Amino acid sequence: MTQDEQFYWKFLSRAVTMGASFFIAKTGVDVLDKIIMVFTAILPMLIVEGQRAHTRLSVRLSKRLLRVGLSMATIGVVLVGGVYFAIAIVNAFAHTYQSVSHVNYSNNYTAIIMIGMVFVATPIAAWRVFRGTQYWDLIYTVPRQQLVKLLVGRRYKAVNGFEFCRFELSVLFLCLMYAHVLALCLTPFVEVAKVLIGS
């Protein structure tokens, strides 16, 4: 690509990023929304620039870009996976609590003991499920290994403009999708926090 074409492409990709960031779901907390937007803007830039300019950059700077990009991408995957797991725990707790609290017990002590058992058993069951399903490997170890293999193990080399655009747009849309899903998953927690703080 000529220098003019590269300039136009960078301008277009930045415009797509800025425009798409307005369509990312909002959590309702301004600070949290801004953190997600900044994260979404920086991560694609780090990954794309690290792959685009690895021959022009020093080895030290290239390694730093890769480390920061890998860390941010891993944090994004862990956050989305962690929020999904938390949603499952909260739903299971709410269902169990509702089932236990609606039973007619012979006295109040039995009701208190049963509800107390739900409060004690839920974190224990969540920890056992987390360990038993190897959820940490699913949300951290495997994605990080695959990112290292993709970004470090084999450098992406585009032979024409189409492959170049496809790689950059793929990274951009994947980051935007993760940001949107993360914001959607955090919204119920934000609503619950608002209700608890307001009451």
What would your notes on this structure say?
The chain is 84% helix and 0% strand. With 199 residues, it is an all-alpha fold. Helix 2 (30-52) runs antiparallel to helix 3 (59-101) and helix 3 runs antiparallel to helix 5. The protein contains six helices and no strands. The mean pLDDT is 81. The chain has one domain (3-198).
Itemize the secondary structure elements and their pairings.
Layout: H1 3-21, H2 30-52, H3 59-101, H4 108-132, H5 135-153, H6 161-198
Helix pairs in contact: 1-6, 2-3, 2-6, 3-4, 3-5, 3-6
Features:
0% strand; mainly alpha; single chain
Taken in chain order, the helices and strands follow as HHHHHH
| Oligomeric state of shown chains | single chain
Shape: elongated
Please tally the helical runs, counting DSSP H or I stretches of 4 or more residues: 6
**First-residue to last-residue Cα separation:** 59 Å
Structural class: mainly alpha
